[in-house]
Amino acid sequence: MRLTRLGMIRPYRNAKRLRRIIAVFTRCVWECLRASGRIRRSAKASGEAGDLSTCIGGNLRQACESLGPTFVKFGQVLSTRRDILPAGIAAELAHLQDSVTAIPTKAAIRVVEAEYGCPLDSVFSEFSSVPLGAASLSQAHEARVASTGDYVVVKVQRPGIQAVVETDIAILSPFLPMLERHVEEFRRLNLRSMVAEFYKTILMEMDFNREMHNGLKFKTIFTDDPTVRIPAMHKALCTNKVLVMEKLEGVKIDQLDELDQRGYDRDTLSKRLVALMAKQIFGHGIFNADVHAGNIIVLPGNVLGLFDFGMVRTIDPETQRLMTDMFVAVLAKDSDRISRLLAAYAESGHCVDVKRLARELHELIVFYYDLPLEDLRLDDLLEEGISILATHKLIVPQQVLMLGRTIVMTESIVMLLSPQINFVKELAPYVRAAIRSRFSLSNLSGGISQFALDSVDTIKVLPAAINTIMTNLSEGKQSIVYRHEGLEKHVQQFSRMTAQLVLSIMGAALFLGSALLVTFQPQGGGSLPSALGTAGLVAAILLFTGLLFSMLRRR
User: Fold this and answer.
1) What's the Cα-to-Cα distance from 35 to each of 41, 49, 89, 403, rounded to whole Å?
2) Residue 289 near residue 281, CB atoms below 8 Å
């Protein structure tokens, strides 16, 4: 009986949520149409075109905020796709904030008790009634572990958030093929794959066990680095919906006045922040994609404290090779190689005009290459590069965009801390080290060794594979189909020549036979042989005439 009721309730909830989504986006579309009319009238009156994309982006941002966590997160993901979205829309979506109204503390306590299966005070002797912060998927409370007395931060997942996300994805999924079929922009956006990637990402963020292991991994990576502090994870107290970590006492990195009052060296912090990012990307092939000032604190000794590892991403070997090859090509001003690399690595879309792309990239590289280092900004360079890719309808994989977003956000924090510090100059030694490492003797010998091992394995299995193929062919389980391409014209010409040759031989034989009949016809003989000979001669002459005209016409 209970299952039946649940089966009836879910469609009702989906329908209710669907009505809400339709109502919000209908209002969004209406506001966009009104804004378009206002901008058109203003442009007609003043002669200056308005920015419609910013108006659309603002309405989309408000719609996402109104619809809650799923759409807020999806809007944040969309904001990174400046290669396929107009700049105004992407900029407005980038303003989406995670901070939302906190859930009541009693609701958070119920989640904790449900996860532990016991009263709260048996686990935590203290639990703050006011959260330290609230986000769209979770909120954090300060607490004290009853058994050890350690002060910790308890991150609690919002109750029912997973059901909300699954409902929203279930509602959106049936509409995606229709949108891609009828709207070219959505087709270019590859909306279905983006939503699938987003769903996978948000599920990973809601898995606190995964975040715990990410924190443990970062703790191991930076265990010998005195400039970085990673909070210890209380593994025994972590569950899928509750994360417990060491509480770090420090100053948020964007609170400049507080940093100055405590005597922290902002230049040192900036250089250490660049080093921290470079070590993640170039040294360990892993990076925290959610780099913003709220997730970084400063501890005594100019030590950087990191927390919130819900958006940790790895860099696959192919992307690492791409990064190194791109750096080498940029240093050599080799725009042809850059265009080929991008065309090969970008997601499948359409045929790219590599030469035209290379010309546009060459102009971009030469312009920024000759700029003084103090005037070079990576965010401007990346934005222009992404604009060029969008012009050529090249869809860059999400992983590369998140990597670029991490670099740009790190640069923005560095510029906030120390405007006189040159981000590119500080990053350059790590880039050169990565290039040297890629082409080092050990890496090259390792590649040769792997190639040799693969070759040996192939040689070992080759006889057995050939034997299997021959057995299948002899038993009729496999067959070889021969098909030629591009020879149709030649085959037709050969067939025509063969037919003409056969007809010529037949005509010659008919002519000779008929001539013999007419020539050796005895005097006073019957008229039948003579008539046949004459008819044969006429037929042969007509056949030769037809062949001659056919050959002349073909020429």
Assistant:
1) 10, 13, 14, 34
2) no
Q: What stretches of 180-275 adopt beta strand conformation (E)?
A: 228-229, 242-246, 251-252
Sign of dihedral through CA atoms 31, 37, 39, 42? Answer: negative
Distance between CA atoms of residues 108 and 87, nearest Å: 39
Q: Rounded to the nearest 10 degrees, how much is the dihedral formed by the CA atoms of 3, 4, 5, 10?
A: 80
In sequence order, what are the residues at sequence separation of 6 or more whose Cβ sits closer than 8 angstroms to the Cβ of residue 8? none
pLDDT at 451 (0 to 100): 56
The C-alpha atoms of residue 287 and residue 277 are separated, in whole angstroms, by 7
β-pairing, 124-127 vs 296-299, is unpaired
User: What is the tens place of the pLDDT at every residue in 515-536?
Assistant: 777 776 665 555 677 777 777 7
Rounded distance between C-alpha atoms, residue 130 and residue 137, angstroms: 17
According to the 3-state scheme, what is the secondary structure of 301-337?
Answer: CCEEEECCCCCEEECCHHHHHHHHHHHHHHHCCCHHH
With 0-12 / 13-18 / 19 or more C-beta atoms within 10 angstroms meaning exposed / middle / buried, residue 188 is middle
Mean pLDDT by 10 residues, the chain (555 residues): 40 72 86 81 71 80 82 76 70 70 89 93 93 86 93 92 84 73 60 72 86 93 93 93 93 90 93 92 86 86 90 82 77 79 67 79 78 67 74 72 82 87 84 74 55 63 75 74 66 74 76 72 62 76 76 65
Q: Could you give the CA distance from residue 215 to residue 228 in angstroms, rounded to a whole number?
A: 13
- Phi and psi of 118, rounded to 5°? -155, 165
The pLDDT of residue 237 is 94
**CA–CA gap between residue 78 and residue 55 (Å, rounded):** 16
Helices (H), ranges, 392-487: 398-417, 423-438, 441-474
List, in sequence order, the alpha helices (H) in 47-152.
Answer: 52-67, 69-79, 87-93, 105-116
DSSP symbol at 122: G
What are residue 308's DSSP bridge partners? none
Q: How far is CA 376 from the centre of its chain?
A: 27
Q: What is the pLDDT of residue 527?
A: 65
In angstroms, what is the C-alpha Rg of the chain?
37
Output the pLDDT for position 376. 66
The one-letter amino acid code at 51 reads D
- Residue 188's pLDDT is 57
Residue 109: how many other CB atoms lie within 10 Å: 17
Q: Which of 432, 191, 197, 162 is nearest to 313 (CA)?
A: 197
Which one-letter amino acid corresponds to residue 272?
R
CA distances in angstroms from 276 to 286, 305, 387, listed in the order given: 11, 11, 29
Say what the pLDDT of residue 374 is.
62
CB contact at 8 A, 270 and 421: yes
Tell me, what DSSP letter sits at residue 349?
Answer: -
